[in-house]
Write a structure and sequence with these properties.
Layout (H helix, E strand, L loop, with lengths): L13 H9 L5 E5 L3 E6 L13 H10 L10 E4 L2 E7 L2 E6 L4 H11 L6 E4 L4 E7 L3 H6 L16 E6 L2 E9 L3 E7 L3 H30 L1
Antiparallel strand pairs: 1-7, 2-5, 2-6, 3-4, 4-5, 7-10, 8-9, 9-10
Helix pairs in contact: 2-3
Length: 217
Protein backbone atom coordinates (compact mmCIF):
# COMPACT_ATOMS: atom_id res chain seq x y z
CA UNK A 1 0.00 0.00 0.00
CA UNK A 2 1.47 3.34 -1.05
CA UNK A 3 1.83 5.98 1.65
CA UNK A 4 -0.65 8.84 1.58
CA UNK A 5 0.87 11.86 -0.12
CA UNK A 6 0.41 15.10 1.75
CA UNK A 7 -0.82 17.97 -0.43
CA UNK A 8 -0.84 21.63 0.52
CA UNK A 9 -3.77 23.91 -0.39
CA UNK A 10 -1.70 25.64 -3.10
CA UNK A 11 0.27 22.75 -4.57
CA UNK A 12 -1.35 23.36 -7.95
CA UNK A 13 -0.27 27.00 -7.84
CA UNK A 14 3.50 26.46 -8.08
CA UNK A 15 3.64 27.25 -11.80
CA UNK A 16 1.35 30.26 -11.53
CA UNK A 17 3.41 31.66 -8.67
CA UNK A 18 6.61 31.09 -10.65
CA UNK A 19 5.13 32.80 -13.71
CA UNK A 20 3.93 35.77 -11.63
CA UNK A 21 7.39 36.11 -10.10
CA UNK A 22 9.10 35.95 -13.52
CA UNK A 23 6.79 38.58 -14.96
CA UNK A 24 8.38 41.41 -12.97
CA UNK A 25 11.57 42.20 -11.08
CA UNK A 26 9.54 43.81 -8.30
CA UNK A 27 7.40 41.01 -6.92
CA UNK A 28 7.99 37.40 -5.83
CA UNK A 29 5.36 35.02 -4.50
CA UNK A 30 5.54 31.44 -3.22
CA UNK A 31 3.76 29.10 -0.86
CA UNK A 32 5.58 28.01 2.30
CA UNK A 33 3.45 25.07 3.45
CA UNK A 34 3.48 22.64 6.35
CA UNK A 35 4.80 24.77 9.20
CA UNK A 36 4.26 23.41 12.68
CA UNK A 37 1.74 25.78 14.28
CA UNK A 38 0.78 25.61 17.94
CA UNK A 39 -1.86 27.89 19.42
CA UNK A 40 -0.73 28.62 22.97
CA UNK A 41 -2.59 30.44 25.74
CA UNK A 42 -1.51 31.39 29.25
CA UNK A 43 -0.33 34.25 31.46
CA UNK A 44 2.98 35.54 30.14
CA UNK A 45 3.83 38.44 32.48
CA UNK A 46 3.14 39.60 36.01
CA UNK A 47 1.26 42.79 36.79
CA UNK A 48 4.45 44.39 38.12
CA UNK A 49 5.86 47.56 36.59
CA UNK A 50 8.81 45.56 35.28
CA UNK A 51 7.27 42.44 33.70
CA UNK A 52 8.85 39.26 34.98
CA UNK A 53 8.52 35.79 33.58
CA UNK A 54 5.69 33.83 35.13
CA UNK A 55 5.86 30.10 35.65
CA UNK A 56 4.01 29.82 32.33
CA UNK A 57 6.59 31.95 30.51
CA UNK A 58 9.51 30.09 32.10
CA UNK A 59 8.05 26.73 31.13
CA UNK A 60 7.49 27.83 27.54
CA UNK A 61 11.01 29.26 27.34
CA UNK A 62 12.46 25.97 28.54
CA UNK A 63 10.98 24.26 25.47
CA UNK A 64 11.11 26.75 22.60
CA UNK A 65 13.99 28.90 23.91
CA UNK A 66 12.36 32.20 23.11
CA UNK A 67 10.44 34.83 25.06
CA UNK A 68 6.81 35.13 24.06
CA UNK A 69 6.10 38.72 22.93
CA UNK A 70 4.19 40.72 25.53
CA UNK A 71 3.67 43.72 23.23
CA UNK A 72 0.70 43.69 20.88
CA UNK A 73 1.17 42.81 17.22
CA UNK A 74 4.81 41.79 17.18
CA UNK A 75 6.63 38.48 16.81
CA UNK A 76 9.81 37.06 18.30
CA UNK A 77 12.18 34.39 17.05
CA UNK A 78 15.05 32.25 18.26
CA UNK A 79 16.68 29.44 16.34
CA UNK A 80 14.07 27.82 14.13
CA UNK A 81 11.08 28.80 16.29
CA UNK A 82 9.04 31.97 16.36
CA UNK A 83 6.05 33.23 18.34
CA UNK A 84 3.37 35.54 16.96
CA UNK A 85 1.28 37.68 19.32
CA UNK A 86 -2.43 37.03 18.80
CA UNK A 87 -3.82 38.49 22.03
CA UNK A 88 -2.85 39.42 25.61
CA UNK A 89 -2.75 35.73 26.56
CA UNK A 90 -2.53 34.03 23.14
CA UNK A 91 0.32 33.24 20.74
CA UNK A 92 0.98 31.22 17.62
CA UNK A 93 4.19 29.24 18.06
CA UNK A 94 5.70 28.36 14.69
CA UNK A 95 8.40 25.77 13.99
CA UNK A 96 9.60 23.68 11.04
CA UNK A 97 7.45 20.93 9.60
CA UNK A 98 7.02 17.76 11.65
CA UNK A 99 7.66 19.28 15.06
CA UNK A 100 4.04 19.47 16.25
CA UNK A 101 3.79 16.18 18.13
CA UNK A 102 7.07 16.65 19.98
CA UNK A 103 6.38 20.31 20.77
CA UNK A 104 2.86 19.68 22.04
CA UNK A 105 4.05 16.81 24.25
CA UNK A 106 7.01 18.79 25.59
CA UNK A 107 4.92 21.90 26.31
CA UNK A 108 2.21 19.91 28.06
CA UNK A 109 4.80 18.20 30.21
CA UNK A 110 6.53 21.49 31.08
CA UNK A 111 3.24 23.24 31.83
CA UNK A 112 1.81 20.65 34.20
CA UNK A 113 0.12 22.44 37.08
CA UNK A 114 0.11 25.78 35.21
CA UNK A 115 -3.08 27.22 33.73
CA UNK A 116 -2.71 26.99 29.94
CA UNK A 117 -4.17 25.84 26.64
CA UNK A 118 -2.28 24.10 23.83
CA UNK A 119 -3.82 23.33 20.44
CA UNK A 120 -2.10 21.96 17.37
CA UNK A 121 -3.41 24.07 14.46
CA UNK A 122 -0.76 23.06 11.91
CA UNK A 123 -3.37 21.78 9.47
CA UNK A 124 -5.54 24.90 9.59
CA UNK A 125 -3.36 27.40 7.73
CA UNK A 126 -0.82 27.67 4.98
CA UNK A 127 1.68 30.48 4.49
CA UNK A 128 2.08 32.58 1.36
CA UNK A 129 5.33 34.53 1.17
CA UNK A 130 5.63 37.67 -0.94
CA UNK A 131 8.58 40.01 -1.38
CA UNK A 132 9.89 42.79 -3.58
CA UNK A 133 9.41 46.49 -4.19
CA UNK A 134 5.76 46.01 -5.18
CA UNK A 135 4.85 43.81 -2.19
CA UNK A 136 3.52 46.70 -0.08
CA UNK A 137 1.64 48.14 -3.06
CA UNK A 138 -0.02 44.80 -3.72
CA UNK A 139 -1.11 44.41 -0.09
CA UNK A 140 -2.34 48.00 0.04
CA UNK A 141 -4.80 47.28 -2.78
CA UNK A 142 -6.86 45.06 -0.49
CA UNK A 143 -5.82 45.80 3.10
CA UNK A 144 -7.30 48.68 5.15
CA UNK A 145 -4.15 49.10 7.29
CA UNK A 146 -1.36 51.62 6.76
CA UNK A 147 1.45 49.37 5.49
CA UNK A 148 3.99 52.13 4.79
CA UNK A 149 7.53 51.05 5.55
CA UNK A 150 7.86 53.55 8.39
CA UNK A 151 4.73 52.26 10.11
CA UNK A 152 4.72 48.53 9.40
CA UNK A 153 8.13 46.92 9.68
CA UNK A 154 9.84 43.97 11.41
CA UNK A 155 8.99 42.57 13.90
CA UNK A 156 5.41 43.75 13.43
CA UNK A 157 2.40 41.69 12.41
CA UNK A 158 -1.30 42.34 11.96
CA UNK A 159 -4.47 40.31 12.10
CA UNK A 160 -6.49 41.94 9.39
CA UNK A 161 -8.50 41.55 6.19
CA UNK A 162 -7.04 41.25 2.72
CA UNK A 163 -9.70 41.45 0.01
CA UNK A 164 -12.24 40.53 2.75
CA UNK A 165 -10.31 37.39 3.77
CA UNK A 166 -9.11 37.24 7.37
CA UNK A 167 -5.40 36.48 7.73
CA UNK A 168 -2.22 37.36 9.60
CA UNK A 169 0.35 39.55 7.84
CA UNK A 170 3.83 39.07 9.31
CA UNK A 171 6.53 41.52 8.24
CA UNK A 172 9.63 39.32 7.93
CA UNK A 173 12.28 41.84 6.88
CA UNK A 174 12.78 45.27 5.38
CA UNK A 175 13.37 44.04 1.80
CA UNK A 176 10.35 43.97 2.23
CA UNK A 177 9.23 40.39 2.72
CA UNK A 178 5.91 39.31 4.20
CA UNK A 179 4.44 36.00 5.31
CA UNK A 180 0.67 35.74 5.05
CA UNK A 181 -0.92 33.14 7.31
CA UNK A 182 -4.10 32.12 5.51
CA UNK A 183 -6.83 29.66 6.43
CA UNK A 184 -6.76 26.71 4.05
CA UNK A 185 -10.31 27.37 2.92
CA UNK A 186 -9.34 30.88 1.75
CA UNK A 187 -5.90 30.02 0.34
CA UNK A 188 -6.88 29.74 -3.33
CA UNK A 189 -8.99 32.88 -3.17
CA UNK A 190 -6.14 34.87 -1.62
CA UNK A 191 -3.62 33.42 -4.09
CA UNK A 192 -5.83 34.41 -7.04
CA UNK A 193 -6.27 37.91 -5.65
CA UNK A 194 -2.53 38.38 -5.02
CA UNK A 195 -1.54 37.25 -8.51
CA UNK A 196 -4.13 39.57 -10.08
CA UNK A 197 -3.06 42.51 -7.92
CA UNK A 198 0.63 41.90 -8.72
CA UNK A 199 -0.16 41.76 -12.45
CA UNK A 200 -2.02 45.07 -12.17
CA UNK A 201 0.91 46.66 -10.31
CA UNK A 202 3.39 45.43 -12.91
CA UNK A 203 1.23 46.83 -15.72
CA UNK A 204 0.97 50.21 -13.96
CA UNK A 205 4.75 50.31 -13.43
CA UNK A 206 5.35 49.49 -17.11
CA UNK A 207 2.89 52.17 -18.23
CA UNK A 208 4.55 54.75 -16.00
CA UNK A 209 7.95 53.83 -17.45
CA UNK A 210 6.64 54.24 -20.98
CA UNK A 211 5.21 57.66 -20.14
CA UNK A 212 8.49 58.82 -18.63
CA UNK A 213 10.43 57.52 -21.62
CA UNK A 214 8.05 59.33 -23.97
CA UNK A 215 8.55 62.60 -22.12
CA UNK A 216 12.33 62.26 -22.29
CA UNK A 217 12.38 61.31 -25.98
Amino acid sequence: MEPIKRVSPLTAWCERFAAASRATDHFVIREAPFFTQINLRGKNATEATEPARTSFARAVYSIVRLDLPDVANIWTAAGDCSALWLGPDEWLVVAPDGRQDDLVAALRNALQGVHHSITDVSASRTAIEIAGADARLVLAKGCPLDLHGERFKPPQLAQTLLAKAHLIIQCIDACPSFRLWVRNSFARYVAEWLVDAATESAASRSLDSDRIAARLA
